[in-house]
Amino acid sequence: xxxxxxxxxxxxxxxxxxxxxxxxxxxxxxxxxxxxxxxxxxxxxxxxxxxxxxxxxxxxxxxxxxxxxxxxxxxxxxxxxxxxxxxxxxxxxxxxxxxxxxxxxxxxxxxxxxxxxxxxxxxxxxxxxxxxxxxxxxxxxxxxxxxxxxxxxxxxxxxxxxxx
Length: 164
What we know:
Blueprint: H1 10-14, E1 17-20, E2 23-26, E3 30-31, E4 34-39, E5 42-45, H2 46-53, E6 62-66, E7 79-83, H3 84-111, H4 117-125, H5 130-137, H6 141-148
Antiparallel strand pairs: 1-2, 3-4, 4-5, 6-7
C-alpha cells in the first residue's frame, strides 16, 4: 500500500516545535543531528522547508543552517543561507566536536570496567578461542568477540586502525 504523501504548512510544522530558551527546537525526526520531515513524498530539511514557506528563495548549492549553533533550532530568525563551501566548514567543526565528545564518554566508561588497556591488548593479540579468553579475564564471550571486532574498547590512539 502506498504511503499517503504529507504536505506540510507552517501550522503543521509548528505543532512539532517547542520553545526552549531563545530557540525553537524541532521535536520530530533528526537525521545526522539535523531536523528532517517527510514532505511531498521525500525527506526534506525542516529549516529549508520553513525558509521556502516564508517566501524566501534558495539557489542551487545553497543550504539553510542556524546561526545559534543549536542543531535542533528551527526558529526563522536564527536561520541563514550559506554556500556549499561555508556548509562544509560548519559541518567540519561539528564533526570534530562530536568525535572529541565520544572520546571523552568512552574514556569515562572505561574507568569502571573490569578490563584495562593491557587486558584488551592481550585479548586482541591472543590466538585462543573467545571462550578461553572470557574465562581468563572474567568477562562474557560476546565481549571478547566485540573487542576483537573493534566494536567496543576501540583503540583511541592516532594509529589504532593500523594495528589490524
